[in-house]
Design a protein that fits this description.
- About 65% of the residues lie in helices and about 5% in strands.
- It has about 600 residues and is mainly α.
- It binds zinc ion (ZN).
């Protein structure tokens, strides 16, 4: 394995082109200089002056226009930084973007405060004269019971970078400070980093490489556990304080309020998966143990592929055909977006030091999506890319159809379009192969990637996070020891006696950025539940199902998650879709067992 490259040494053609946001840093800085007086003018003109609905509409319009000009500013800096957290210039730009955004939040906080205090008739008139702002006003009214005194709101807005502090500290520790050094296995020395561990080593087919990598990785993580726990505790305290100040009954209520979801949907997802999915996944773990001839199935063996030898290698260029074929069913407009993503360098494929781990898609309003991925040249990347292009396809549609206030759907729904594309990819690959080994590889990818990642990894995070918030609501402090214990309990409960939970597994909580994004982890399985039902409809019904789905994507944030799912023909107020999803995973594991018998027999 080669040493990780520096950002400056990677091949430019496989990096994203941020010049669609700003031609260069100079243009970025100029945009900031231009928006600053607009913000000042906005405050001077409208603060304390929203006397008529007409003026209110003008103010909302101006607010919207400033918001739109801040989008590329924040994204340019942020994307630059995520491709190399160690880039001091990017850090500087990110600081500038954060400052202007704080200035805007603080100078514009009067708008919400003043509108909320207006009589109902006033707001109704705003809505009827400017129907494009209907959801904006309804959103304000939804938050009215939790709104604080205008001066307090302004003070809180001024503190916003401090509130983002824990997440940025988390990233700095993780991506800049921790040095994993090297480890040895089979008499060879291997360099170790977050990227190499999560990208390759944790799923390495050689048991000694895999297990020694895990040992070295965990031992180094452990040295940082108190800093990480302290950082996380700050995040929790801030969420708890906000929740109390605004008058929510619990942190969980506060965080679900933003998602337009009630507690029953949240708890069902966690409870049912912990109890009903676990038996299927334990069977899958047993199958891994059997196929790899392991005498003991350990926690660090769970990410190994069922049949690494049957996983084809794939280049970036070749991935394009697979993606095109798999997503063709979504129609020409969708495919056009996919091909532009390749042609116009929307995607950052390279691997380099300091780059954010995992993959994500940012979809700045008014521009096109940008995707970050670290291409390992393994076939599994077509699933990752299909997933991220699912986010792109979602916001590409929603951003075109909706105004900036209405484009983003609830977090509960965000992972549905992405996981839907993973299902479409799997269906495509299965339809076009008769080779039992390849079929087994595809199904095991759906299990080990799509369902494992979304319903197990993130779900265990969610179950653990729920326990953490229970403690927070009980006003308990959180130490590294507590977090380790809670995480270990959840992992042990899920895997039972079928997997031995090695020391170090409890530190898994240190690896996930999602804890800094509210109740995000559970939404992966929620999205995948909708996607599983939807992809079955596409398989069975074809075009009418695709048409429904495109309507859902275009609806953006104008509907609640329950309404969006309903438009897709899925009723998530009942447990049926989740039960069907779990049954489907069970069938996939059955199929894996049969294919394995066939291959070995
Ligand atoms: Zn995603």
């Amino acid at each position: 394995m080669e040493e990780m490259k520096s950002r400056k040494d990677v091949e430019v053609q496989y990096t994203w082109d941020l010049s669609d946001l700003f031609a260069d840093d100079g243009a970025f800085e100029q945009a900031i200089e231009e928006v600053r007086p607009k913000i000042k003018g906005f405050n001077e003109e409208y603060s304390g002056n929203l006397h008529s609905p007409t003026t209110a509409i003008e103010a909302i319009q101006e607010y919207k226009s400033i918001l739109e000009s801040l989008v590329p500013i924040g994204n340019y800096a942020n994307l630059k930084l995520s491709s190399d957290q160690g880039d001091e210039n990017a850090q500087k730009l990110d600081g500038m973007a954060s400052n202007i955004s704080t200035y805007f939040n603080s100078e514009s906080s009067f708008l919400t405060s003043e509108l909320i205090q207006k009589e109902e008739a006033f707001l109704e008139e705003v809505k009827s004269e400017a129907p494009q702002f209907l959801h904006f006003i309804d959103e304000l009214l939804k938050n009215k019971p939790y709104q604080l005194d205008p001066k307090v709101e302004k003070a809180l807005a001024s503190y916003s970078p401090v509130f983002n502090g824990p997440y940025s500290l988390y990233l700095k520790t993780k991506l800049l400070d921790i040095d994993f050094g090297t480890f040895s296995a089979n008499g060879k020395e291997y360099p170790l980093s977050y990227l190499s561990f999560e990208g390759e080593l944790e799923g390495h087919e050689d048991v000694e490489v895999r297990r020694n990598a895990f040992r070295a990785f965990s031992d180094t993580l452990s040295e940082y556990q108190h800093t990480a726990a302290g950082t996380y505790d700050l995040q929790l305290k801030q969420e708890k304080t906000t929740s109390d100040l605004r008058g929510f009954d619990s942190v969980i209520d506060y965080l679900l309020h933003e998602q337009d979801v009630d507690q029953s949907l949240y708890h069902r997802q966690i409870d049912m998966i912990m109890s009903d999915l676990a038996p299927h996944m334990r069977r899958y773990a047993k199958l891994l143990k059997r196929v790899h001839g392991l005498d003991e199935m350990k926690y660090e063996d769970l990410k190994v592929s069922l049949d690494p030898a049957s996983e084809p290698e794939i280049s970036v260029e070749d991935s394009r055909q697979y993606i095109n074929d798999a997503l063709k069913v979504m129609g020409d407009d969708y495919l056009n977006m996919v091909n532009r993503a390749y042609d116009e360098r929307w995607i950052d494929f390279v691997k380099n030091k300091g780059k954010s781990t995992g993959a994500f898609c940012a979809s700045p309003y008014g521009s096109h999506p940008f995707i970050l991925i670290s291409w390992t040249s393994l076939m599994t990347e077509v699933f990752v890319l299909a997933h991220e292009l699912g986010h792109a396809g979602h916001f590409h549609n929603a951003n075109r159809e909706q105004n900036i206030f209405d484009a983003r759907s609830s977090m509960y729904f965000v992972e549905a379009p992405s996981t839907m594309n993973e299902m479409l990819m799997a269906n495509h690959l299965l339809e076009n192969s008769e080779d039992p080994k390849f079929k087994r590889w595809v199904i095991s990818s759906i299990i080990s990637r799509t369902y494992y990642h979304n319903c197990v990894t993130h779900l265990l995070e969610a179950a653990y996070q729920r326990e953490v918030y229970k403690k927070v609501d009980a006003k308990e402090n959180i130490s590294a020891g507590d977090l380790n214990m809670l995480k270990r309990n959840v992992i042990e409960e899920f895997w039972g006696d079928d997997v031995s939970i090695t020391e170090g597994a409890e530190l898994t909580w240190m690896r996930q950025p999602h804890y800094y994004m509210g109740l995000y982890p559970y939404t992966y399985s929620a999205g995948l539940t909708i996607a599983t039902a939807m992809s079955k409809r596409v398989l069975n019904e074809g075009q009418p199902a695709v048409d429904d789905w495109l309507k859902v994507l275009k609806a953006g944030g104008t509907k609640t998650p329950v309404e969006l799912a309903k438009m897709a023909g899925v009723d998530i107020t009942t447990e049926q879709p989740l039960r069907d999803t779990i049954d489907y995973i069970g069938e996939l594991v059955d199929e894996l067992e049969q294919l394995t018998d066939q291959i070995e027999g």
